[in-house]
Amino acid sequence: MTVLVAAAALPATVTAATATTATDARAAGAERRPPSIVADWARAWNGADPQALGALFTTDGTYADLGVGITFHGPQEIAGWKVRADGLIDDVHVTVRAAHRAGDHITVEAVYSGHLKGAPQPFAVPMTTLLDLDRNHCRITSDEDHYSLTAVLTQSGLPAGWTPPVG
What we know:
Number of strands: 6
Number of helices: 5
Low-confidence stretches: 1-31
Strand order of the largest sheet: 2-1-6-5-4-3
Order of helices and strands: HHHEEHEEEEH
Mean pLDDT: 84
């Protein structure tokens, strides 16, 4: 947040206050950029290599898709989830709108979109993802995706009880 400083006395004080304000503005701008792990996460979802998603996680990392009620453990299962998602949804895409970091925790506000295979229409729903990072902030230990499956199915033109085909 930019700190506004009012200085009515000495020119030297005004110069110091201006420098402090500019420094604060640069620091605030740096905090507004999403952490690189968020950009990597979105790029992995939007890309074609499922291993790129799995590689972002620690060996004991978890990925919970709460929209469908499934949790995956470890990089291989998580990469497998990306394979399955790509098999069920054409043009899977995550658009990050904002990311907020507090220590080892990141909250991502995004739009989750795609076109369920066989559905009459594509979908684009709001999603919130909670990421927990390892102590070095370079790998994800936990991912929880929160979105409405009902909204996905409604926008897709599918009935509420629809389930993906097996196989």
